[in-house]
Amino acid sequence: MKVILATKLEGLGCEADLVTVKAGYGRNYLIPQGLAFEATPSNRRFINMLKKKRAEREAAELANFREVAEKLLGEVVRITLEAGKGGKVFGAVTNQMISDALAAKGIDVNRHALELEKPIKQAGTYEITAKLHPEVSAAVKVIVTVSGAVQEEPATESAPVSETSSAE
User: Fold this and answer.
1) In Å, how far are 6, 12, 14 from 36, measured between CA atoms?
2) 109 contacts: CB under 8 Å, gap ≥ 6
3) Would you call 156 exposed, middle or buried from its count of C-beta atoms within 10 A (0-12, 13-18, 19+)?
4) Helices (H), 23-82
5) How far apart are CA 94 and CA 57, in angstroms?
6) What is the pLDDT of residue 156?
7) Which pLDDT belongs to residue 153?
8) Which of 151, 152, 153, 148 is nearest to 83 (CA)?
9) Which stretches in the chain have pLDDT values below 70?
10) In terms of Cα–Cα distance, which of 56, 164, 64 is closest to 109?
11) Residue 125 CA from chain centroid, whole number
């Protein structure tokens, strides 16, 4: 069954796309929910209107992502990790922690947009890329510090030094 999408559907398409779906999915879900129209000759005339609506939405999204990228320029996120004996870090810095730190500064970035190869487990300065849109990306500087590091004292097996006074 061919349908014309009325809204953007993940994994299926965007507004004004002519897609082929199973008849039951189209008739029982997409059309009753208002997510699609049956691709009849009369409904195909609405494609231009839907394409215009789609172009406006995409332009607004792109402008929004560019605005967020401008906010991210020069932004520094500081995250402190706790450490135990020997400086071993408890946990790691993840995409969610960076996203939460940015949200606290008033910058809303989806955690899935942050490209972090693996969680950060050491102190240092890291450059994380935020892929906001296929056309827009920005860099975020993340400074990780470790607190609570208690160094173990090396065990020495030497005899205690005794002081002897000699009175001459």
Assistant:
1) 5, 11, 10
2) 68, 72, 99, 102, 103, 130, 132, 140
3) exposed
4) 23-25, 47-72
5) 31
6) 42
7) 46
8) 148
9) 87, 149-168
10) 64
11) 18
Contacting residues for 6 by C-beta, under 8 A, at least 6 apart? 15, 34, 35, 36, 37, 50
Q: How far is CA 150 from CA 53, 82, 86, 98, 125, in A?
A: 60, 10, 6, 26, 22
- The half-sphere exposure of 83 on its side-chain side, counting CA atoms within 13 A, is 19
DSSP β-bridge partners for residue 79: 144
Q: How many CA atoms lie within 13 A of 112 on its CB side?
A: 1
What's the confidence (pLDDT) of residue 159?
Answer: 40
What Cα–Cα distance (Å) separates residue 123 from each residue in 73, 96, 168? 22, 18, 58
Sheet order of strands, 36-38 included = 18-20, 2-5, 36-38
Burial of 167 (0-12, 13-18, 19+ CB in 10 A): exposed
pLDDT in tens, 98-147: 999 999 988 888 888 898 888 888 888 999 888 988 888 888 999 988 88
How much is the pTM? 0.63
SS3 153: coil
Residue 25 has what pLDDT? Answer: 94
